[in-house]
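Input record (one chain):
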Amino acid sequence: MSTDCVTAKMEDNVYELAVLMRDHNIGFVPIVDGQKLIGIVTDRDLVVRGYAEKHSGSTAVSEVITTDIVTIDSSTSVDEAAGIMASNQIRRLPVVENGNLVGIVAIGDLAVREIFVNEAGDALSSISQQNHNEHHHPVVH
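The corresponding structure, as predicted from the sequence alone:
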């Protein structure tokens, strides 16, 4: 989970969101009121609800925001988060506590976790195989 989230406010406009996305190389901005998560805006939202609808850069966030969002709390397991992302076909999952944004789990976070899980499994398998071989085929000096 990333906790250093780039956020915006309802008072911001479409152009400001696009600049945030460009400058931070992101495609997702949580919209907050203080710490409270109000909704999200994705790069797709900017295109489909903003620019493709011929809205100018000064268009309010309220014209492109998604407020019906799926969230999790910090006690949600990684496997549960992955399942929620898969079943809802989403790439980013806000983590909230009492309605306040505390972080974001991105699909890339899960990919990195899977690499470590696979590496740990491979290492354990290798260690188990070595121990198994040592017990059945002792080395004679």
